[in-house]
């Protein structure tokens, strides 16, 4: 709701299905829908499949918060997710023993990086981890992922990239670091929305530039 009211012109609530709000408006003359996805990959999978299958969505960009894993990734920095690793996704049954590698659409990724550079926003591009667990008490896993250069953790991108690939849609995740798993620094709740503006603008520029 905040993103739609802040960045879209003439935003109107067009859906409240399952209590999840979706707003449609315009940004620089382009028609945009900003829609909640719930928390976690199973919830996102429902909305991504419905937006693509029932409404013909061709471009889906996730915006949201993430927890940093590497020392040089700071709170308030933006992460653009090139790939998203996961222990499991709702799509695992499709692949069975095969390990699918969920990846962003390169065109969207390229445009998002250009938009971030133009804004001068501290930005990192690389692999992230999509977790099934919000309160994860496995520091060994964090250390292992950090050793492999994983920038941050969130809970949805791996399934978003998988669903988009299955249906021939474009997908990207643009995230703001709200917490740091190593330093334990965290954005106060009151500051989170104010710190997310660059992320939203980068996502919009990527979609329409």
Folded structure, characterized:
With 209 residues, this protein is of the alpha/beta class. It has one domain (61-208): 3-Layer(aba) Sandwich (Rossmann fold). The chain contains 8 helices and 8 strands; from the N terminus they run H-E-E-E-H-E-E-H-H-E-H-E-H-E-H-H. It has helices at residues 2-7, 41-55, 92-95, 106-119, 139-147, 157-167, 189-195, 197-208; strands at residues 9-15, 22-27, 30-35, 59-68, 78-85, 123-130, 152-154, 170-180. The protein has a 5-stranded mixed barrel. The protein has a 3-stranded antiparallel β-sheet with strand order 1-2-3. A hairpin with a 2-residue loop joins strand 2 and strand 3 (30-35). The longest helix has 15 residues, at 41-55. The mean pLDDT is 94.
């Amino acid at each position: 709701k905040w993103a739609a009211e802040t960045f879209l012109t003439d935003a109107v609530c067009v859906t409240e299905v399952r209590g999840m709000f979706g707003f449609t408006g315009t940004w620089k003359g382009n028609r945009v829908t900003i829609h909640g996805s719930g928390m976690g990959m199973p919830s996102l999978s429902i909305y991504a499949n419905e937006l693509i299958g029932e409404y013909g969505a061709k471009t889906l960009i996730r915006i949201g918060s993430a927890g940093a894993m590497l020392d040089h990734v700071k709170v308030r920095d933006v992460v653009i997710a090139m790939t998203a690793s996961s222990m499991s996704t709702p799509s695992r049954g499709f692949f069975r023993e095969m390990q699918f590698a969920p990846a962003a659409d390169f065109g969207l990724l390229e445009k998002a990086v250009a938009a971030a550079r133009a804004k001068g926003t501290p930005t990192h591009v690389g692999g992230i981890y999509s977790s099934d667990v919000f309160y994860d008490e496995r520091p060994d896993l964090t250390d292992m992922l950090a050793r492999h250069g994983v920038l941050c953790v969130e809970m949805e991108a791996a399934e978003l990239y998988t669903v988009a690939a299955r249906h021939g849609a474009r997908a990207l995740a643009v995230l703001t670091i709200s917490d740091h798993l190593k330093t334990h620094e965290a954005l106060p709740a009151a500051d989170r929305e104010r710190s997310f503006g660059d992320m939203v603008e980068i996502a919009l520029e990527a979609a329409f530039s």
